[in-house]
Write a structure and sequence with these properties.
single chain; 224 residues; mainly alpha; Endonuclease III, domain 1; 2 domains; 0% strand; DNA-binding
DNA sequence: ACCCAGGGTCATA
DNA sequence: TATGACCATGGG
């Protein structure tokens, strides 16, 4: 039987193991937004190359991205994969962003409404919206990704069939809507997954084909 | 040569 | 509601 607030134990365990992560790796809020779209189902190392190309071409701003021919934008972000789709998504997002006014304008919108607005943009789904809300606007939301589902399921914090919203609210409540904690928690989960991945299909609980040995130790230590 | 990465949309049942 | 196809580069 799972106890209430086990998420906090996992959080402190991860924090003890790895320390603060200081996410998101970006210089500006807008760079966070671009990175959130480009990293959809894509390794971050590839996103870095795409962002480098944008910066090199003075195109790391909403004006340049929305004004550029889509084919040219696609060529710049090619290393991040899905470049045709992501070029469309980036431009859709930048049209919306410029139409809203500015960062300051958006920062005055309530979190719930800003989330709805983001989700109305073509190519922005729940996870991308929450990345932007948490890491570009410092809003108290939690990001649910494949790593989180896998770890939570393995650690007994989730059944694996919860909807995105249910899981998100569950963590937000436990963490008492603390922006800094929600920020670190998601960052730690991602780091943990990358750091500990050993690509051996051993774990019975793992829904993917690879397995996280260190996670098993960590889970066993606290939850097993 | 295969697996999969810090997902989302769209069509189908 | 819930699957499946599709998008595409690059590292392990």
């Amino acid at each position: 039987m799972m106890q209430a607030g086990q998420e906090r134990k996992l959080f402190s365990l991860l924090m003890k193991a790895y320390g603060k992560q200081d996410w998101w790796p970006a210089d500006t809020p807008f760079e966070v937004m671009v990175g959130a779209i480009l990293t959809q189902n894509t390794a971050w190392s590839n996103v870095v190359k795409a962002i480098f190309n944008l910066r090199k071409n003075n195109a790391l701003n909403p004006q340049a991205i929305s004004a550029m021919p889509q084919a040219q934008l696609a060529d710049m972000i090619k290393p991040s994969g899905y470049f045709n789709i992501k070029a469309k998504r980036l431009q859709s997002f930048c049209y919306w962003y410029l139409q809203q006014g500015s960062y300051d304008t958006l920062s005055k919108i309530s979190t719930d409404n800003l989330r709805k607005d983001l989700l109305s943009v073509h190519g922005i789904g729940p996870e991308t919206a929450d990345d932007i809300l948490l890491y570009a606007f410092d809003r108290p939301v939690f990001v649910i990704d494949a790593y989180t589902r896998r770890l939570f399921t393995r650690a007994g914090l989730a059944s694996g069939h919860e909807s995105y919203e249910v899981l998100r609210h569950q963590v937000e409540q436990v963490m008492q809507d603390s922006v800094v904690d929600l920020n670190e928690f998601h960052a730690l989960i991602v780091w943990h997954a990358k750091e500990s991945c050993r690509k051996k299909p051993i774990c019975m609980h793992c829904t993917l084909q690879h397995h996280c040995n260190y996670a098993q130790q960590l889970d066993g230590y606290e939850f097993g």
